[in-house]
Amino acid sequence: KGASKGATKDPYPDWKPGEPVPYAALCTTFSKIEMTTKRLEILAHCSLFLRQVLRLTPQDLLPTILLMINKLAADYAGIELGIGESLIMKAISESTGRSLQHIKSDQNEIGDLGLVAAKSRSKQPTMFKPKALTVAGVHKGLLAIATIEGQGAQGRKVDGIKKLLSAADAHNAGKAVDIEKDKGGPSEAKYIVRTLEGKLRLGLAERTVVVALAQAMKFHEMSQDDKIPSTTDLAQAEATLKSVYSELPSYEVIIPAMLEHGLGKLKDNCQLQPGVPLKPMLAKPTKSITEVLDRFEGKDFTCEYKYDGERAQIHFVAHDTSLEMATAAPAAGKSDKGVANIFSRNSEDLSKKYPDILAKLPTWVKEGTKSFVLDCETVAWDIKEKAVLPFQQLQTRKRKDVKAEDITVKVCVFAFDILYLNGEALVNKSFRERREHLLGAFKAVEGEFAFAKYSNTNELDEIQILLEDSVKSGCEGLMVKMLDGPESSYEPSKRSQNWLKVKKDYLAGVGDSLDLVVLGAYYGKGKRTSWYGAFLLACYNPGTEKYETVCNIGTGFSEAVLETLHKQLSEIVIDRPKPFYTHSSGNKDQPDVWFEPRYVWEVKTADLTLSPRYKAAADEVAGGGKGVSLRFPRFIKEREDKKPDMASTSRMIAEMYSRQESVSKNKGPSVDDDF
Ligand code: ATP
After folding, report:
1. What spacing in Å lies between the alpha carbon of 349 and ligand 1's midpoint?
2. Ligand 1 atom closest to Cα of residue 309
3. How far is CA 589 from the centre of its chain?
4. Interior angle at CA 253, CA 250 and CA 257, nearest 5
């Protein structure tokens, strides 16, 4: 209903059919979104704007969507924003002629560089009117900035930012910016800077953009026949686009196909394709084998070893097939047999990290296996002992440009699922069938390629023995998976209740380790005064796009680790907390230094408690404003494979807390980990 509001009004009269989408129009929409917290209103603004794009300039739909979700390209392209504050301040200063001192003091006062840019721009006397920015132009400019590398990269990045900022707000330059009344209004400079920082802070989740796009497309298509979609039409359109996106998460592929074939034929034209990584399915933690038995009561399930390495999705297309790798990532490995790609859990291209896997891959397939997408774990392998090695060994391998001659740690691939085989997507088949396909299409090669060890048992004693064996063989525990029926299909990007994990160390503690973002630090005492001795950590709330603090941590660090961390972190110190950090305001609770949100650490805890010092999940637990916090947290390792917005979410922490408190016995539905 919300989406049809204002359908007949044309809110951007200056934008004529066929002309590039004005960036100012997108910023007006952003500003409207920023002024509300109501999801339906946000959706309506978003969808209305996309309808205009579809009606007037459909060729700009792709950059519009990318800017709305604050990405420049699909994740596997490896292009990232998140430019440091100091570079942006320099660019604001140089493009507006205000001193760096002024910019810094404004930033101290306002705490949002976007607003500082808007304010600086509005104070600037205008000699001439720059050409108005377009959505496609801004996207191109940002892409250029993000991909600058090599000598003098920083200076050239600043130049790129300056260029965008000088052209910003052509239409309303010199107009005063009112932070109190409308959060700085639709200022282009504000949104350019926030985009550069990697956080738009509109409360606009990617899921909402997908729904808005589906609605807008449906409205657009039906308007050709002078019709308006019903609620059912809209729901169908959403379901179509969501399901297509979960199999093929690439706007670069979906949007042109949708414009060409329409929503009705989108599913036929957009299916899982080798070359486009899916967001992996994830598991829910359980505390005991009996909990597993309770949850899967009456169903057939299977228990697999949970290997402790790195998630890897391997895509392959043989030369002698009519198929092609959809959008081969830059580092695709080519052999005389075919083209292969490896993607991380994050959809990053790992092909340069594992040239050894790419080289050997064709020797693991059976005759007739021409194209596939495998879900696996890469694990460090001890050739002498013929056994898996701890994750730390795998970490010694560089992430990029690994040459065959400098490989010291061998890797064995443990395959546990197959999502695509010989031209056919398998995600909707049962796990029992997928496993048959997996076993039928590949052959194990000792120390190189193996099938995850499993047993289809639901006997408590047998599972207990399997768990003990898995731990003895260097694994983390078990993954327990539903075998039959629609529940056992592969659910991309979901933390699903149809996959349960039982880790050896759950059996005592809270249930799982957490992945948290480092926001601040405290100087050490005694021997450690020149380094940081303790750190402030936070979880992520995707709903509000904020980091909510959850504990201080000072345990689990060796001297050597503290020294490295000090080096790493002192490069990202910022003067004050970002406005999207939520922490207690108490004086004694403030850390000595604050950081950009960049590093994710895996942390274990004895249990969870409520505390007024922290804010994690404060809105979700009935704690009268108190947040959930970790007791006796201990540092395990850095999670290089996770970005800050992939940290444990407030919802997960609230769930863990309520499970611990036995407040609720609710099993909860599968939740989407990604959105
Ligand atoms: P963790 O810290 O436990 O790895 P996570 O959030 O990265 O947590 P989970 O959903 O908790 O991911 O656990 C699933 C992970 O376990 C997978 O991402 C994969 O890397 C790894 N894994 C190892 N063996 C298996 C297996 N047999 N089946 C599925 N995943 C497995």
Report:
1. 19
2. 20
3. 30
4. 135
**Rounded distance between C-alpha atoms, residue 157 and residue 226, angstroms:** 48
Task: Please indicate whether residue 416, judged by its CB atom, sits closer than 6 Å to ligand 1.
Answer: yes
Q: Which amino acid is it at 499?
A: W
Is 376 touching ligand 1 by the criterion CB < 6 Å? no
Contact 134, 22 (CB under 8 A): yes
Rg, Å, the chain Cα set: 26
Beta pairing class for 634-638 and 627-631: unpaired
Cβ of residue 494 lying under 6 Å from some atom of ligand 1: no
What are 81's two structure tokens? 């924003």
Residue among 282, 347, 378 whose CB has most ligand 1 atoms within 8 A, to mutate? 282
Banded pLDDT at 666 (limits 50, 70, 90): very low
**Ligand 1 neighbour 603 (Cβ under 6 A):** no
**Distance (Å) from CA 283 to ligand 1 centroid:** 7
Question: Please, what is the angle between helix 251-261 and helix 231-247, to 10°?
Answer: 140
Query: DSSP assignment of 600-633, as one string?
Result: EEEEE-SEEEEETT--TTTTTS-STTPEEEEES-
Q: What is the pLDDT of residues 92-101, one digit of tens each?
A: 999 888 999 9
How many angstroms is it from 633 CA to the middle of ligand 1? 21
What string of DSSP letters covers 295-355?
HTTTS-EEEEEE--SEEEEEEEEETTSS---TT--TT-EE-SSEEEEEE-TTS-B-TTT-H
501 lines ligand 1 (CB under 6 A): yes
- Which amino acid does the sequence have at 88? I
Q: How distant, in Å, are the alpha carbons of 89, 283, 287, 459, 662 from that of 293?
A: 56, 16, 11, 9, 18
Which is catalytic among the residues 157, 199, 279, 306?
Answer: 306
Q: What is the pLDDT of residues 452-506, one digit of tens each?
A: 999 999 888 899 899 989 998 999 999 999 999 999 999 998 999 999 999 876 5
- 31 sits in which H/E element: helix 23-34
- Give the global pTM: 0.80
The ipTM value here is 0.96
Please write the tens of the pLDDT for every residue from 518-553: 999 999 877 677 889 999 999 999 988 899 999 999
User: Residue 385, exposed/middle/buried by CB under 10 A (0-12, 13-18, 19+)?
Assistant: exposed
Of all helices (H) and strands (E), which one includes residue 378?
strand 371-382
**Does residue 306's CB lie within 6 angstroms of at least one atom of ligand 1?**
yes
Angle value at C-alpha 443, between 438 and 445, nearest 5 degrees: 130
Query: What is the tens place of the pLDDT at every residue in 110-127?
Result: 888 999 999 887 776 666
pLDDT reading at 555 higher than 90: no
d(CA 616, CA 595): 18
Give the span between the Cα atoms of 105 and 325, in whole angstroms: 51
Q: At what angle do helices 135-147 and 188-197 cross, to 10 degrees?
A: 30
Maximum Cα interatomic distance, the chain, rounded to a whole number of Å: 81
Q: Could you identify the atom of ligand 1 that is nearest to the CA of residue 417?
A: 28
Q: Which of 380, 396, 397, 398 is nearest to 388 (CA)?
A: 380
Query: How many A from CA of 344 to the centre of ligand 1?
Result: 12
163 is catalytic: no
The Å distance, Cα 377 to ligand 1 centre, comes to: 8
In 3D, which of 490, 362, 392, 473 has the Cα closest to residue 432? 490
Residue nearest to atom 25 of ligand 1 (CA): 306
Write the single-letter amino acid at 526. G
Our CA angle for 244, 642, 296, nearest 5°, is 65
